[in-house]
Amino acid sequence: MSSAMSTESLVSGLMEHALSAACAASVRAAVTLGLPEALGDAPATADELATAVGADQAALRRLLRSLTSYGVFAEEKTGGFVHTGKSRALREDSPDSIKYLVLWCTEPWLWSLWGNLDESVRTGSEVFTRAHGRPFYEHLHTEWPRSAQIFDRAMTQQTRLSANAIADMLPMAGAGTVADVGGGQGLVLGTLLERHPDVRGCLLDLPGVVADADPRLQPGGALADRVRLVPGDVLEEIPVEADVYLFKNILG
């Protein structure tokens, strides 16, 4: 009996892993359909939500029930659906929103890359350039501007969630300057400069990213007189000098 239960648990666990793409696709569908925003504080039926987002009622009901199995939304006994902590985090107006992180992790072009993971492991080479003819960042900003915008917003959301923790643990004693290399919009840099009023900073990232820097760092911002905004490709050159260099989520 114990052996049978162990085998059943093993198979169930492996199948859950194998079907994890279905979970990712379901969560992405919820975001792209606008379900987290369509559902307010009061319960709503699947039919009501289908009307709100312009979806097929039967298909949306199946999607919602799939999502509830992952803890994204919950279904009440009356048939109404309500928010959970996970579904609220998919709302753009949530202070802990990861809406764009979810969209970035589930962009459609990513699926084909995951399908080549075995080839990448076998050869030790990355498959993106071979598949698309040029390096990731160059292709992203040239061919997929919408994905590039999602990427920038996703990195901002991720950084917003971790900026204070990084500022708490980063040793800055004796440092006069800090360079945030590939620092996106500069949320971490801004937090560090607020914590350390005697430190000056430099934000280095692609031109389009730096142009949309944190308002605190832009001309006229609260920290503007202590910051240099340097456009450039950090994978090609790091043309800045500092006492402390911060590298966060840099893909090489």
What report would you give on this structure?
The chain is α/β, with parallel strands linked by helices and 252 residues long. It folds into 3 domains: 9-94, Winged helix-like DNA-binding domain superfamily/Winged helix DNA-binding domain (Arc Repressor Mutant, subunit A, Orthogonal Bundle); 107-169, no CATH class; 172-247, Rossmann fold (3-Layer(aba) Sandwich). The protein contains 14 helices and 6 strands. The strands form 2 sheets. Strands 5-4-3-6 form a 4-stranded parallel beta sheet. A two-stranded antiparallel ribbon has the order 1-2. 27% of the residues are buried. The model has no long low-confidence stretch (mean pLDDT 92).
Brief account:
The chain is α/β, with parallel strands linked by helices.
CATH topology of the largest domain: Arc Repressor Mutant, subunit A
Determine the N-to-C terminus distance. Answer: 50 Å
Outline type: globular
CATH architecture term of the largest domain: Orthogonal Bundle
Residue stretches low in confidence (pLDDT < 50, at least 5 long) are none
Average of pLDDT: 92
Largest sheet descriptor: 4 strands, parallel
Q: Count of DSSP helices?
A: 14
- Binned, the helix content reads 40-55%
| Share in β-strands | 5-15%
Task: Return the domain count.
Answer: 3
Structural class: alpha/beta
Give the helices and strands as they follow along the chain.
HHHHHEEHHHHHHHEHEHEE
Output the radius of gyration: 22 Å
Strand order of the largest sheet: 5-4-3-6
